[in-house]
Write a structure and sequence with these properties.
With about 70 residues, the protein is an all-alpha fold. About 50% of the residues lie in helices and about 0% in strands. The N and C termini lie far apart (about 30 Å). Bound molecules: zinc ion (ZN).
Amino acid sequence: MLEDLKPPVKTFPCRVRTIASELSEEDSDIFVNAINDHASWSVKALETELRARGVRVSEKAISNHRKQRCSCA
Ligand SMILES: [Zn+2]
């Protein structure tokens, strides 16, 4: 009766991927590189600098993407 009982899969729609798809190819490359550059970019710094340039992405979204807790994983 419970053969198909499974924990719910938590996937978050990925804002990072959505934004990357909306940017120009050049901007998208820069954006994705910064997101993946854990050494140079803290989540907080990235969120702040992106917002200053008109790109709204929450720290949570960046953090989830980096931890592969989003729908990209
Ligand atoms: Zn993602």
